[in-house]
Specification:
Elements lengths: L1 H12 L28 E8 L2 E5 L4 H9 L6 E7 L4 H11 L3 H8 L6 E4 L4 E11 L6 E12 L2 E6 L7 H9 L9 H36 L3 H33 L7 H68 L7 H4 L3 H22 L4
Parallel strand pairs: 3-7
Antiparallel strand pairs: 1-2, 1-3, 4-5, 5-6, 6-7
Helix pairs in contact: 2-3, 3-4, 6-7, 6-8, 7-8, 8-10
Amino acid sequence: MMSRTRQAADRLLFPVKKRKHKVGLAPGSVVFVGEARSTPVTFDVTTYGPDTHHLHRPESADEAVDRFLNAGNGTVTWLDVTGVHEADKIQRLGERLGLSALTQEDIVNTGQRAKVETFDDSIFISTKMLYTGNHDGAGHVVAEQVSLVIRPEGVVSFQEVPGDILDPLRERIASGRGRIRRAGPAYLAYAILDVIIDNYFVVLETQAERAEKLEDLIMDDPDEQVQHDLNELRRDLVYVRRHAWPMREVLSHLERMTHPLWPEETLRPFVRDAYEHAVQVLDMVESLRELAGGLMDLYMTALSTRMNEVMKVLTIIGTIFIPLTFVAGIYGMNFENMPELSAPYAYPITMAAMGVIAALLVYYFRRKSWL
């Protein structure tokens, strides 16, 4: 699972083409906005009930929708669509499912802010799934948009790239662990959101480890690379906070929401728990941001301390040469009536005296722990 996650995160970090934008088009225009991808759009259809579980991988959007709509009574179907860069396929699938043009537009716009929208026969949720990209070993944070459509038949999820953090949920469904096989579509949507929120903690733990390593580097060797890494850490924490705040709002909305497809009394305790996790995530982000700010102060202090040490050594060296320069200046004036100039051993005696003065000063500075 980790290799799939890392592979997906690396693709998000290092896109194939430049990001597309939608400017000047009419509302409801189903135009992909995001990093262009070369991977094909794939469909996974999981149908389950208390005593049944089936997994299919249809070839086309029409076949996927047919399996989703005709799964049968007493079952829940999860249609997982991977890849939203082919807008025509997403539009075809959305039309078959009866999704509005604005909802289809939100699905293919990967810069969407997390939100909840309710309709008569469906609920639309847009959220962000965070990864830690390890391509360069720096542990940078990347985000992938995940859109959920809750319908009476089940849940349709839309992801940007292959590989995600939802394998534990798929294993729970396949093995029948927990209550998910006995619950409805809304509980499946909650379970997806819960896994996404829980992975925020994993991402933040990685950032905390980065901070610890940077603290050690600051104490050992505060070079320019450390400053660059500190700035990258602070940007990543701002990035996490930018996505965690809307997630908190989404969960708060879901906790209070009344809708026929959202059994409020049944899901409220679970959603409240997920909401509390989102609050904890934000608390951790703020703590790590304060830590990163403290590390920047520590870095500046370490630089100042190292500069002071260099200046102290240079000052001591200059102090040692002051008396030597004085002696050399006296005997370099070449007065006629200087008896020492005619002495046969004047030069070696003067050099020896200068050496003794320098040695005594070095000894004195060492005794004072200045050198």
